[in-house]
Amino acid sequence: MNKMKVAIAVFKEHVSLRFDCAEEVLFVEFENGEIVSRKMASMEGLNPLQKLRSISTSGATRLVCGAMPGFYRRMTDFLGIRIMHAEGMAIDILIEHLKRGKSNLIVPCSQRGRGKHRRDGCPWMVTGG
User: What CATH number is given to the structural domain containing 42?
Assistant: First the structure.
């Protein structure tokens, strides 16, 4: 039985560009490639450490987000949470990749400009199969 619980830092319908600015986190639990639970949680008013504690308490082992300061990255390492960067990616596209077990294939697109995010398409690509 293959289980995975993912926390996704959300801004509107996309992965938040910065973890510490996300006001909501979507918790998605997968089992054998199917979604078994999906819950949106408000993080409004919480500082980044409180957000990380909430994510850790939920049982999520992966966090999908955008930029994250080094201090918080070290905290996720300590908590056993694996970071996956996909800032700006549409949530529904991300979830489809995760359902298909391609969570380790999400990488930044080399065409993304510094400080600019493409509005005409997905700023991310999936490598491999």
Answer: 3.30.420.130
pLDDT tens per residue across span 23-79? 899 999 999 889 999 999 999 999 999 999 999 999 999 999 988 888 898 999 999
- Write b or e for each residue in 30-68: b if 16 or more Cβ atoms lie within 10 A of its Cβ, otherwise e: beeeeeeeeeeeebeebebeebbebbbeeebbbbbbbeb
> Can you give the pTM of this predicted structure?
0.79
CB neighbours of 39 closer than 8 A, spacing ≥ 6? 26, 27
Q: Which two tokens stand for residue 45?
A: 């008013």
pLDDT tens track for 40-56: 999 999 999 999 999 99
Per the structure block, which two tokens stand in for 17?
């560009």
User: What CA–CA distance (Å, rounded) separates 112 from 127?
Assistant: 15
The rounded Cα 116 to chain-centroid distance in angstroms is 20
Structural domain containing residue 112: 3-126
